[in-house]
Write a structure and sequence with these properties.
two-stranded antiparallel sheet; 4 strands; globular
Length: 104
């Protein structure tokens, strides 16, 4: 099953370069809309704490997504589920999490 989350390119209609909260410059089709994620996770992605010492990010690059998952802030399954992925995609993400020892 093919599924892609909403990106900044969907909103802009182009593929311009943008600077992510982490400092990377990436095309807008790599900036995923994460407004559906809990604000505490979105603040951690910007380098702050979950308590709110920095504003929550609305878009994150693939590197930020992978860092959040690798560091245990969120599982891949929870990430894609929050972004509206269909069941087949969340199941595949759950298997990937389990294979890497990341519990729900």
């Amino acid at each position: 099953m093919s599924w892609l989350p909403k990106t900044l390119a969907d909103e802009e209609g182009g593929n311009a370069m943008h600077q992510c909260a982490c400092g990377r410059r990436v095309p807008s089709d790599m900036m995923v809309d994460v407004t559906a994620l809990d604000a505490s996770i979105r603040r951690i992605a910007r380098g702050g704490s979950a308590r709110g010492d920095v504003p929550a990010a609305d878009y994150l690059c693939d590197g930020c997504r992978e860092r959040l998952i690798r560091e245990g802030a969120i599982t891949r399954e929870s990430f894609v589920r929050a972004l509206g992925a269909p069941r087949a995609v969340t199941k595949k993400a759950a298997k990937r999490d389990a294979a890497r020892g990341r519990a729900r």
